[in-house]
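Support case: user asked for a sample of complex input and structure output to validate their parser. Sending the pair below.
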Amino acid sequence: MEITPEKLRWLYTTMYRIRRFEEVLLEQTALGKSMGVAHTSDGEEAGPTGICAHLTDADWIGSTHRGHGHCIAKGVDTAGMMAEIFGKYTGLCKGKGGSMHIADFTKGMLGANGIVGAGIPLAVGAALSAKLKGDGSVGVSFFGDGATGEGTIHESMNLASVWKLPVIFVCENNHYAESTPVEYAVSVTDIADRAASYSMPGVVVDGMDVFAVYDAAGEAIARARAGDGPTFIELKTYRYHGHYHADDPHTYRLPEEEELWKARDPLPNFERKVIEQDLMDEVEMERIRNEIDQEIQDAVEFAEESPLPPIEELYTDVYVNYSNSVQGLR
Amino acid sequence: MTTTSRPNPLGPGFDVPGSEIRYREAFNKTLGDELRRDPDVFVMGEDVAGGAGREDLGIIDSWGGAFAATKGLIQEFGADRIRDTPISEAGFVGAAIGAALTGTRPVVDLMYFDFITVAWDQLLSNAAKNRYMFGGQGKIPLTLFARSGVAAGYSAQHSQNFYSMVAHIPGLKCIAPSDAYTVRGLLAAAIRDDDPAIICNHKKLINMSSFVPDESYTIELGKGRYLRRGADVTLVGMSYTSEVCRLAAELLAAEGIDAEVVDMLSLSPIDEDIVLESVVKTNRIVIVDEDTPRCNMATDIAAIVADKAFDSLDAPIKRVTGPHTPVPYSKPLEDAFIPSPEDVVATTKKLLGA
């Protein structure tokens, strides 16, 4: 699939932005700056980047507890994300959601979801809206291998198939649901095989290779926009850190396995390819990395300097209208 | 205590054009009005049309909903807006929430209220919380209606009244109309409302008729009404127990006891003022709830009265509820489960020392 020079730069910038955000977030979490849990996605950058490269702000994505990469790939502001995770009033959700619930409706980011599998029907609903309104937009649902044991994925795939909805189901198979290996918990070797049960194409993609993801996503999203229904994409990928910031993954996986995956890291993988093909050079890539390093540093400073939410915020946004005083009920 | 003016308990209907229609017909009429009024409104659920996908065989609208609430709508609005679903409550309720978040106004027919538990995580974790946890981004104009209540041998899994479960959750609204007139006004208000609202339709009310104006109207969510004014005791009902209270008040009147009947209509938000206004006047209260007794709406209303009108009480707050059991099948057992007008009369007379 043809990639413009601008798109190529965007792919690299976006992957590096996710990587740097997650690394810095882990450092900041260790310093006690995050007010809650942080589930990082470094190692998995190629997936959301290659998928969202084909989306606009009018398209919706649904996300998971491990959602920072999805947010960033969809264009969500990293300073607003960092402030949210720091529990600040300037956060994208005014400090009321935290890492597991970052949303930005102006960017078509329908929210990270802390219940495994619960976000999948929402993306189907976004696609249902798109179909009813005929606006040509699509819904993309990101979820992990762990979610494929939940009923919602099966119900959602069936609904999307029988209603021929413009949905792309993106399974980020990072091989672990918390500490449980995929080969223990999932009945098939390739989760994409399950797509056949719902009469939709299912493709297995190297989730460490952004070009492979970009090609598969381009085809699936074009299919959805053309009214030809849903596609299931399984990305074989790996999370470099534990399930959440304080989880030591070495209690359930071997260093040798980690090294095998890190040898396929999506960033050097990209750099090697573009240099080989003379599409970008190291000077340009270094400039991009420096810019992003600064952006994430600025995001931390913004988050640190931002005010905490006023206590009145506890009681707002529960309803659009409610005739009882929410505060008065306690 | 503030005294607010309240609408005529008989509704505005008696000097406007209208007719006696059944509760289920009021549903149908209101859905038609709202589908016509707003192109973003659509209805989805199991068998809301029925026989879906067989139009080429001349089959259309074979059911029109399990209780015919949606009968005839597919002919006017088409299969996209009267959308049959697979039996997949978590999936399609979740999809309705996603659709509501992205600019449409879904109305879900969940058939039986008991099925809410199958879709519960979607309602609890998404519909109720998304707006809050996203810091006020997005709204969920979702209306969900389902048949609740004990009747006709539906037994343990098709008869429950989970009002209190819904009312317990911040972010959800819980509505309990008690006749065709209130169905029309509350359903229209819920569909036009920007929050997720769950409407309980009691099976025993579905075929009952009352006067309903021809013109569309709304009833404000969160407001109760008086079904009867009286001085001696306050009877509080919700959904079908409002009818039980009304019948009990007639029996009490025959024995010289003048009961006031408050029909809650909304359970979240809840009209505390009408309950307090009444009990401050009568000094005695009996709350009638068909739900099981632990942590139900009657308990919640009793707590409000104990907290805010304690000094007005001349007697303990009494609750008449279902027992702490599943709903049984056999008719005599089922009858024994349901709070009857006679049960309410007996409790009230004991309270009054009559």
